[in-house]
Design brief:
- By secondary structure, the chain is of the alpha/beta class.
- The chain is built from 22 helices and 20 strands.
- The chain is globular, with a radius of gyration of 25 Å.
- Bound molecules: thiamine diphosphate.
């Protein structure tokens, strides 16, 4: 009798144990999450079994997902977050949808009421499958513990092949406690990071694209985040130099090319583009979108480039995004690195002399205006001064995470990316306030060797302040910068530029964020004197533990730079 029990114990494990083993088997190192009643079996499996993974307890499930997102963007590995049923599932959703729409591989695990309790007005019950369906690339609510290994394999496969994205798995309470055959618990660890399966584009389309690029007088590359995700920066630069073609990026595409490269245009579009970058887009007779969806922000609502004015080559891993917004002359469906390598081969005979005159002139013009504002002693402190001072103070390899509001457009336009790779990012799919602090935690966990800084508006700070406790508990040497202007400034600027200055319900009272930070145990500085900014930033960056600088800044509606360019 005893022997039979022993054999059975060796052959099967619980669903929760299988879930933990499946994560480990896919190479997961860290899980961000928050506990709940329905998660007790999962937490117990994490507590009991020797899996080697780290669990980071968060103070809100939304931030667990943002941490997983930041971790995935920097590491290229699947970011994992988890939360319980009901409020946990609804709170985690914003981070899942941001990752999915930003093509970030993120696995969201929610636990759920028992299958046997469904439909009986059970506390926290909601149809999690329906909730998560539009927010994910793939999702499943499991009914049987035996399905756990297969479901995890499917989730990892979908997250890291083709267009990266989010997956959701719901593990009901009794499914976590049911049996799973140990022999079923296996994984392909290469599915733990992106890009897991590279696919090359049709050689015929490569030939056609090569012909168009060769024949174009003013070709321009507009690159999204897939260049960095695919590790295609060198191939992109080789192709651009071969053609002497300028390279612009979206906000998510920053790091495809270093900003000091002679052909680097910087960010284009309505959230960080300027008159000068727009002129370069308008001058192109061929635009090659590289891993860029040609969405509303990058193209300033599909006006730049103007449809029909330039020939369009569109390269993306996802065929669904091609020809959606522009009539496309040549579609290239495939992995960026393979496709750009193929284009380089097709154009091997081409080597145009480098002519970066137009790009240089545009850059000089843009930065002349910026430098003037950046050296201003105006009070409240101008955002330009903050950008310039931080650029001077930070190591080139530092990681910067930006919230919407003032941070994203100003840092996208003017903060220099020194080198390639993902060093600066923002949540550009939904642009929800309150992303940067948590995403910076994830970025730091992924790459602790470099300094990580989160820049947020005070509107964003109000939506994420609770995670200061997580930062203090984990003793993370992050630096947070709050652009303090007591207003939802981006919206107020929109009311000014588009609605005759009829300001309505956008102002709030000032908060001393440095004192809030101190209450959590974060070292804080509050700066309102322009001359004190550099010293405060240097001290905060040098501080060994968590630090926060509250910068009393000029609100966006009073911006000296033509912010109306940015407001859609
Ligand atoms: C969750 C969420 N709600 C509303 C918005 C709309 N929105 C975009 S920018 C913005 C104002 C941002 O204010 P703040 O963080 O204080 O930065 P500021 O613009 O003042 O620099 C708002 C409300 C949003 N992006 N996200």
């Amino acid at each position: 009798m005893n022997k039979r029990v022993e054999v059975q114990a060796a052959a099967t494990i619980t669903g929760a144990e299988a879930a933990v083993e499946m994560l480990q088997a896919h190479g997961v190192e860290v899980i961000f999450g928050l506990c709940g009643d329905t998660s007790l079996p999962l937490y117990d499996a994490l507590a009991r079994t020797p899996h080697g993974m780290r669990h980071i307890l968060t103070r809100d499930e939304r931030h667990a997902a943002y941490m997983a997102d930041g971790y995935a963007r920097v590491s290229g590995k699947v970011g994992v977050c988890e939360g319980p049923s009901g409020g946990g599932a609804t709170y985690i959703l914003p981070g899942v949808v941001e990752a999915n729409e930003s093509s970030v591989p993120l696995l969201c695990i929610t636990t759920d009421v028992a299958v046997s309790s469904r439909g009986r007005y059970t506390l926290t019950e909601i149809d999690q499958g329906a909730l998560m369906r539009p927010a994910t690339k793939w999702n499943a609510v499991l009914n049987r513990s035996a399905d756990i290994p297969h479901a995890f394999r499917a989730a990892f496969n979908r997250m890291t092949t083709g267009r990266p994205g989010a997956a959701h798995l719901s593990l009901p309470y009794d499914v976590q406690n049911g049996p799973v055959e140990r022999a079923d618990v296996w994984a392909d660890p290469s599915l733990g990071r992106v890009p897991a399966r590279r696919a090359a584009p049709d050689p015929f389309c490569v030939e056609l694209a090569g012909k168009l690029l060769r024949g174009a007088k003013n070709p321009l590359f507009i690159c999204g985040g897939g260049v960095v995700t695919s590790g295609a920066e060198a191939e992109l630069i080789e192709l651009a130099e071969r053609l002497s073609a300028p390279v612009a990026t979206t906000i998510s595409g920053r790091g495809a090319i270093a900003d000091d490269h002679p052909l680097a245009v910087g960010v284009v579009g309505s959230n960080g583009g300027t008159v000068e970058t727009r002129q370069i887009v308008d001058a192109a007779d061929l635009v090659c979108f590289v891993t860029c969806r040609a969405g509303s922000v990058t193209t300033e609502r599909w006006r730049h480039p103007a449809p029909g004015k330039a020939k369009i080559v569109h390269l993306d891993i996802d065929p669904a995004v091609i020809s959606v917004n522009y009539p496309t002359d040549v579609p290239l469906v495939g992995d960026a690195r393979l496709a750009l390598t193929a284009l380089n081969e097709a154009l091997a005979a081409v080597k145009r002399p480098l002519d970066a005159h137009t790009v240089q002139k545009a850059r000089e013009h843009k930065f002349a205006r910026f430098r003037m504002l950046a050296s201003s002693g105006d009070k409240p402190i101008l955002p330009e001064r903050l950008v310039a001072t931080l650029a001077d103070a930070l190591d080139p390899d530092a990681q910067l995470v930006l919230d919407p509001g003032t941070p994203c457009p100003y840092f996208s336009a003017y903060f220099p990316v020194r080198g390639t790779g993902r060093r600066i990012f923002s949540n550009r799919a939904h642009g929800a306030l309150g992303y940067a602090m948590a995403a910076a935690i994830g970025a730091h966990v992924a790459c602790p060797a470099v300094k990580t800084v989160a820049v947020m508006g005070d509107g964003s700070f109000g939506m994420c302040a609770g995670e200061l406790e997580t930062i203090v508990r984990l003793k993370l040497p992050l630096t947070m910068i709050v652009i303090s202007n007591s207003v939802y400034g981006w919206i107020k600027a929109g009311q000014k530029s588009g609605y005759g200055g009829r300001y309505f319900s956008v102002d709030f009272t000032p908060t001393d964020h440095a004192r809030v930070a101190e209450a959590f145990g974060v070292k804080g500085w509050r700066v309102s004197e322009p001359d004190e900014l550099a010293g405060a930033l240097a001290a905060a960056l040098a501080h060994g533990g968590p630090s926060l600088v509250d910068v009393v800044c000029q609100p966006l509606q009073d911006a000296k730079a033509p912010v109306s360019e940015w407001v859609a």
